[in-house]
Amino acid sequence: MTVEAAPTTGTPAPSKGEVEQRKGVRVRDYGILAALVAIVVALSLSTDTFLTSGNLVNLLDQVAVVGLLATGATVCIISGVFDLTASATLALSAIIGVLVVQHTNVFVGFVAAVVAGALLGLITGTIVVRSGVNSFIATLATSIIYRGLAVVVTGAAILYPLTEQAEQFGMLTWPSLFGLTSATIVFVVVVGIIAVLIAATTFGRRIYAVGGNAEAARLSGIRVGSVHVSAYMISGICSALAGLILASRAGSAQSSMATGIELTAIAAAVIGGTSILGGEGAVWRGVVGALILTLIGNGFNLLGWDTTYQQVVTGVLILLAVGIDRWLRRRR
Amino acid sequence: MTHTPLPAPAIAVRGVGKSYSGVSVLRGIDLDIAPGEVHSLVGENGAGKSTLLKILGGAIRADEGTLSFDGDPVALGNPRDAIAHGISLISQEGALVPALSVLDNVFLARWSHRAGLLRSRADRRRFDELIEVTGFDVDPGARVDGLPIGTQQQVEILRSLARGARVLALDEPTAVLAEHEKANLLALIRRLATGGTTVLLVSHFLDEVLSVADRVTVLRDGELVLTGDAAEQTPGSLVRHMVGRELDVLYPEPAPVPADAPVRLSARGLNRGIVSDVDLEVRAGEVLGIAGLVGSGRTETLRLLFGADAADAGVVSVDGEELTRLTPRRAMDAGIALVPESRKEQGLVMMRSVRENIALASLSSRRAGPFVRPAAERSAVAQVSRSVDIRAARTDAAVETLSGGNQQKALFAKWLSRSPKILLIDEPTRGVDVAAKSQIHHLITELAAGGMAVVCVSSEIEELLALSHRVLVLRHGRPVGTFSRGVDREVVISAAFGDEGEHA
């Protein structure tokens, strides 16, 4: 017995993946920007102080440190690794910077700090690639070593530049273009360069491919190890610059600088919408994540809310960001 | 505690439909399946056969219509309900716990216990009974992640039986199996059906479907176009219903290799792991097929030729020039390309766009300093996509949204955009629908006719014999013979089995 059903012909529907992909991409692309705009609008309407140039300059100065670290974290996460050494690298390179400043001058010292950051990134990356240990564990261990070295080098003391260097050492807090602080300018320029590097170069393509599928990337002739090491070096440079901004602000460096901030950086990357699984994301997302985290702090201050609740709000936000990401992902 | 399985229910499907975000993938399906029947669902990729199987298997719920067992409507939407109704779905991906033993997987969450303590000896007895029923040869103590895919699938079947499944839903069960494993599985399916178990089967292999199924349902674009006795159908009639038109299912005839064609690729004394002393030679314009059972070292040999794994010993030469310390990069520089076995694991970056994937292997040929040249890339990708006929609405869509056939074509496009001299292909058409399969066969034949040297591995012996000028047979990693075009299929198979041929 054979039953022939008359097939109803019509225009073939677009495949289900196609349609959902389009919708999913839109929401995931711009949802986080909408959240940022919403916070900005809410704060503008509810306070008189938010939209003052003083507050905005202050805000952009504050976002520089987390923004730089979030950029480094984003690059690493896209390439499929974590960098938990960020804050220890920050401290160690700032300390090296101050030591070199003491023996030469501020300019050479700052350059030395950035070179130190890049070298520490090179070492971290080499350890991760060569050991084959999961990057989370390998960088956790490495960060303890770096932090320990920072204690050894400083003898647990606070390092200051020489008295006559002190004023120039604070140069990153000086006002610069458009009344913004030099720190903000450094942040914008460096993050801009890295964003272009990731979005428009063949190196950026390799970063995405390695993070998305390391084996497919390897079989496409990509040196997966070098790509990871490069990602760690970018992260190291970002950490060093963030360290210099903090040191310049404080007028000193010490081994306990910015402890735990590497997790804030990863949180910023994730809030921005970079997939923790690698292969997806963008530098601007890390920056938006950092802006949102900074705005929450700023909002608590301006609104006179009890800042003891700030961490609770931040934590809830991270859960929401990751939860929404997962929900959108499951629908496609 | 063996339980006598209850008789399988008569399954009735009425007006079943399913949509994903407003796009209908299955519409108005009416279907009756008798107890103890082997019922096969066929159709091109995207026709809705896997969706229907998942609905019957209880993994997903239909948006409209009803599903009833022995006249009682059932609402299944999760594995627990399905198991409670004696239905077991075995999907392509597998659902085993890699770090647990075979025994623990078979009785997963249903371990024998007394007062909360596990009684593994009781499990062991239950296991032996199942082995007797199925005739499988599986070590109960082995860790699942160390087993070949074929054996893992057997573990899943054992688990279904251990749960007293009366309806077994299998999604592409033979896609990953070697010839003799396929035969064993098909025989088991027949035995289970004789014992009263209903078997639902999705497969691309029409010969297989017709040999094992009692009845066949053909789906096209989410609609049922035919349900009938398998005995009344031929592969040709099924294909006609699947694609809605006549389709050239014949293999293309390869162009003869010119007598003066130079040797492009040669390998001498390749060794690593199972691969032992493999020599081979491919001339420009020639397709060399590599045949052998699963685990005979076919894939491993291709990987050594590409430098994907480093050989312990042996030499690979291109145009007579020896390649030292071979890596994928060096192989690519020498003009070799590898289309690997698994698109998902080794071939494509699934969440990235079609364009980025195709461009990945040839990034440095289209750059301005460090920068990608987007316009040049778009036009290059568009051109190569056309040449392999990728059907994607937008090349910016993630490659994972494409059908299996289009993904495979994207993988070919990625390598063809480098214009390689030598193309190594591992399983050219695995998980690819009938139409795309035929296109890929024509593509390979055309590439060889254009002077490319091709080495092809395939578990489908017909495909391999039809595409190749010569076939090299491996057994336990050693070459056991090279056969010219026109060789009998039985000759190749018995060479692949060797001494084991008699009792396989």
Automatic annotation (TrEMBL), chain A:
Q: Where is this region: Disordered?
A: 1-20
GO MF terms, alphabetically ordered: transmembrane transporter activity
Question: Subcellular localization, per the record?
Answer: Cell membrane
Question: Keyword annotations for this protein?
Answer: Cell inner membrane, Cell membrane, Membrane, Transmembrane, Transmembrane helix, Transport
Main site of residence?
membrane
Q: Which Pfam families match?
A: BPD_transp_2 (PF02653)
Q: Which residues cross the membrane?
A: 30-47, 59-77, 84-101, 107-129, 136-160, 180-203, 224-247, 253-271, 283-303, 309-328
Q: Does the keyword Ribonucleoprotein apply?
A: no
This protein's membrane topology, according to the annotation, is: Multi-pass membrane protein
Q: Name one GO cellular component term.
A: plasma membrane
Q: Which PANTHER family match?
A: ABC TRANSPORTER PERMEASE PROTEIN YPHD-RELATED-RELATED (PTHR32196), AUTOINDUCER 2 IMPORT SYSTEM PERMEASE PROTEIN LSRD (PTHR32196:SF71)
- What's the protein here called? Autoinducer 2 import system permease protein LsrD
What is the organism field in this record? Answer: Blastococcus mobilis
Automatic annotation (TrEMBL), chain B:
* Cross-referenced SUPFAM superfamilies: P-loop containing nucleoside triphosphate hydrolases
Extract one GO molecular function annotation from the record.
Answer: ATP hydrolysis activity
Give residue ranges for domain ABC transporter: 11-246, 257-501
InterPro entries to which the protein is assigned, alphabetical: AAA+_ATPase, ABC_carbohydrate_import_ATPase, ABC_transporter-like_ATP-bd, ABC_transporter-like_CS, P-loop_NTPase
Q: Which UniProt keywords apply?
A: ATP-binding, Cell membrane, Membrane, Nucleotide-binding, Repeat, Sugar transport, Translocase, Transport
The record's annotation in Pfam families points to:
ABC_tran
Q: Read off the PANTHER family from this record.
A: CARBOHYDRATE TRANSPORT ATP-BINDING PROTEIN MG119-RELATED, D-ALLOSE IMPORT ATP-BINDING PROTEIN ALSA-RELATED
Output this protein's name: Monosaccharide ABC transporter ATP-binding protein, CUT2 family
